Amino acid sequence: MSDLIKLSAAELAGKLAAGEVSSVEATTAHLERIRAVDGEIHAFLHVNEAALEAAADIDRRRAAGEKLGPVAGVPLAIKDVLVTTDMPSTSGSRILEGYMSPFDATVVANARAAGLIPLGKTNMDEFAMGSSTEHSAYGPTHNPWHLDRVPGGSGGGSAAAVAAFEAPLALGSDTGGSIRQPAHMTGTVGVKPTYGGVSRYGAIALASSLDQVGPVTRTVLDAGLLHDVIAGHDVRDSTSLVEAWPSFADAAREGARGDVLKGLRVGVVRELPEAGFQPGVASSFRNALNKLEQLGAEIVEVSAPHFEHGVAAYYLILPAEASSNLAKFDSVRFGMRVDVPGGTVEDVMAATRDAGFGDEVKRRIILGTYALSAGYYDAYYGSAQKVRTLIQQDFDAAFSSVDVIATPTAPTTAFRLGEQLEDPLQMYLNDVATIPANLAGIPGISIPSGLAEEDGLPVGIQFLAPAREDARLYRVGAAMEAALVAEWGGPLWDRAPVLGGAR
């Protein structure tokens, strides 16, 4: 049974379709793994008691000859930012403790319709505000590579669950790097789709113009399989793109077997200097670029002069939108309520928000409210939106001469728990390489590129493509993954010293 957790989602799906293993067996193996290791990792906030029942239903339907989807019966972890009818949806916050949604997020509904088996809800920074999963109201998640390190954030729970073989697939959300940065820190694959390419309906909003839901997996093909399930137009999301999408799994297969890197023009951003990156991260990135050149790619320096202002603009736009989105948690309509005997509605609201929100959420609400206030709107929020436009123009200019842009995914490997908690600015800078893609609405993927020499922890390389060119990322990512795995003699995650030695 334990061998099942080591399979990729594609491999497991193949065995399920061939009748070599049942969904109940696969789900049982992953539930046993969660019981064995999650006490120390804390990737899950809630484990789905009905998972085996859902798996048994898939097995019955398959035995009856029903035509099922390509990933039917494969277990799935779900970031707790996505609402579900049968499990609590807290977004990592006390203010939503025990909240049961009357509907499923569209991506969750799509996953159920595809036959995926929800294993449970994964831990996250409160309302997705953080880069380490230490801002969860329910305690931090630990990195399976080293338990005293963070798994990244805000979606560290999903990344840790996949890295620790607790789930072959997971859903995450990415507002400024919350899928890609944890992938970098846990040796997994994370994809931020084009903005509007995946429905946000039922994703508890942080910053509506930046949020996007995407896959967290151990291989590029697995990410493509999950992306195929969740992509598509949703009339309930006004920002949802209407066009049909190609198969991202097919694009990954094409990349893995084809010579797609030959002649590929890969842009390297001049204004993203190595000086700000940990030596092992910079070295891994240079080695990856050398590998690309060996495989026939052309490395081209591109200029993106406004990238350096991306973090500052982001931390005005995001708090402004968050302060508006989080106003709904007011003690009146749903969620937590702190009673104030003899107090007014305003007194109860203030007491509830004070007790229910953590320090980082309060910090960003205050910052966002200030940025939107009379007399400061144009100077702060308005100026940040202008910078956003300039960054979009930088990308447009760069993609006129290159096919993809490559960067290190994050400046450092996984840092120690507690190391950056008292330094918000340093925490914010973890997303310096990932934020520009969210500001521009373009897709990005992070894949493992090696281990840093100084600490042996995973490093990721990020590829970015123009809007709507997600399939290009899957072709390039799968080709790069295949080349690196061949060089290493096996996948990077197979060398992770995870608990229980699932290798």
UniProtKB/TrEMBL annotation:
GO terms for biological process: translation. GO terms for molecular function: ATP binding; glutaminyl-tRNA synthase (glutamine-hydrolyzing) activity; transferase activity. The keyword Thylakoid does not apply. One of its GO terms (cellular component) is glutamyl-tRNA(Gln) amidotransferase complex. The active site is at K79 (charge relay system), S154 (charge relay system), S178 (acyl-ester intermediate). Keywords: ATP-binding, Ligase, Nucleotide-binding, Protein biosynthesis, Transferase. Gene3D superfamilies: Amidase signature (AS) domain. Residues 25-473 form the Amidase domain. It catalyses: L-glutamyl-tRNA(Gln) + L-glutamine + ATP + H2O = L-glutaminyl-tRNA(Gln) + L-glutamate + ADP + phosphate + H(+). Its EC number is 6.3.5.7. It comes from the Bacteria. InterPro entries: Amidase, Amidase_CS, Amidase_dom, AS_sf, GatA. Allows the formation of correctly charged Gln-tRNA(Gln) through the transamidation of misacylated Glu-tRNA(Gln) in organisms which lack glutaminyl-tRNA synthetase. The reaction takes place in the presence of glutamine and ATP through an activated gamma-phospho-Glu-tRNA(Gln). Belongs to the amidase family. GatA subfamily. PANTHER family: GLUTAMYL-TRNA(GLN) AMIDOTRANSFERASE SUBUNIT A, TRANSAMIDASE. Heterotrimer of A, B and C subunits. This is Glutamyl-tRNA(Gln) amidotransferase subunit A.
